[in-house]
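Form 7-S
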Amino acid sequence: MPKVHKNSDFLQRLAELEERVAAMAREGWERDEVPFYPTSLRTFVYDDATSFTTLWETIISPRAATLSMGLVFIGDVVGTTNSGGEWRVQFNDSTTVASGNVPATFTYALPALTLDLTPYRADTALKVQIQVRRTSGATTGGKFGGGGAIGGAPRYARLI
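Output:
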């Protein structure tokens, strides 16, 4: 059987180790996909309200520096009236880290976010919520009689 002779020179082994680390750094970062879970069967908001409604949420261990997210939102149309509103992403039920509008034009809003997780790195768990509220549109009619709807979902979410 062939025998492998291991180099006993410390500096040579250190150089080989540094080369392996450099090669791994050149290969790129590993990314973790983050699943989100709906908070209701419909994941649509059917009421005009001053408060936000959580559509999707998850709890993560913030072991990475950033959370990269892509979202999709669309307002419904009832008759000839379009629904519009606002969206936001919240951490731990209290801190709004991103927000925007859902236009009342029956077109998709496709925000892409990079959220800083460094203030939460010491936490063991971080709750992430995607919330929306309808602020304009039909207030009667529609599928459930409450007017137009605002729908939203995560397209992707990755810890980087």
